[in-house]
Design brief:
By secondary structure, the chain is of the alpha+beta class. It has one domain: 2-Layer Sandwich (Nucleotidyltransferase, domain 5). It is built from 3 helices and 4 strands; from the N terminus they run H-E-E-E-H-E-H. The chain has helices at 5-17, 68-85, 103-113; strands at 28-33, 38-44, 49-55, 92-94. It has a 4-stranded mixed sheet with strand order 3-2-1-4. Strand 1 (28-33) and strand 2 (38-44) form a beta hairpin. The radius of gyration is 14 Å and the shape is globular. The termini are far apart. This is Large ribosomal subunit protein uL18. Belongs to the universal ribosomal protein uL18 family. This is one of the proteins that bind and probably mediate the attachment of the 5S RNA into the large ribosomal subunit, where it forms part of the central protuberance.
């Protein structure tokens, strides 16, 4: 029997997490995508700290007039701004089991435009 989409994503996510780890010098940018919103966190896995987070629900982002791909790009820029303020310039990108396509790709491009390197 075929895997459900949740089981398939869980397998992909574990496969990614075997190799992608966030350290103090190079934290992990984790992405979660729901049907309506997109969320991003910069995480130091060694110490178990979330350095900063951003989402399309933040008050800094007016996502009411734009489509979801443009909102994801704005979230990427916002997380990059917050990360640079926190002293983070290089990250490891964790796409969270999602394909690098659409909103996930747009968020990554926005983070690169904001000054993050990965």
């Amino acid at each position: 029997m075929a895997l459900s989409k949740y089981e398939r994503r869980a397998r992909l996510r574990m496969r990614i997490r075997k190799t992608v780890e966030g350290t103090e010098s190079r934290p992990r940018l984790a992405v979660f995508r729901s049907n309506k919103e997109i969320y991003a966190q910069i995480i130091d896995d060694v110490n178990g700290n979330t350095i900063t987070a951003a989402s399309s629900r933040d008050k800094d982002i007016d996502a009411s007039n734009v489509n979801k791909i443009e909102a994801a790009k704005m979230v990427g820029k916002l997380i990059a701004e917050k990360a640079v303020k926190a002293g983070v310039e290089t990250i490891a990108f964790d796409r969270g089991g999602y394909l690098y396509h659409g909103r996930v790709k747009s968020l990554a491009e926005g983070a690169r435009e904001g000054g993050l390197k990965f």
